[in-house]
Amino acid sequence: MLTVREAAAVVRELREDRRWTQSELAQRASVSRSFVADLEAGKSTVEASKLFDVFQAFGLEVALRDRETGEVRW
Residue 48 sits in a domain of what CATH number? Predict the structure, then answer.
């Protein structure tokens, strides 16, 4: 993912796959429902720490991959 808009699409897909409402995801991630709505709308001003909270609610961790070498950093 390179943009918040790309992250938004992934978050919405994961949430819908689990059949969670925005409110359910918000509760699991300890963020507001309006944050989830803003995130899913692709707003570029979402707070990074809360985005990581959302990923953790899905049981995900974030790694960085170098686009040139493919090297992954944790």
Answer: 1.10.260.40
Q: How confident is the model at residue 74, as a pLDDT?
A: 87
Number of structural domains found in the chain? 1
Per-residue pLDDT averaged across 25-32, rounded? Answer: 98
Query: In one letter, which amino acid is 21?
Result: T
Say what the pLDDT of residue 35 is. 98
Q: What DSSP letter does each residue of the chain carry, written as one string?
A: --SHHHHHHHHHHHHHHTT--HHHHHHHHTS-HHHHHHHHTT-TT--HHHHHHHHHHTT----EE-TTT--EE-
Residue 30: give the domain boundaries: 4-73
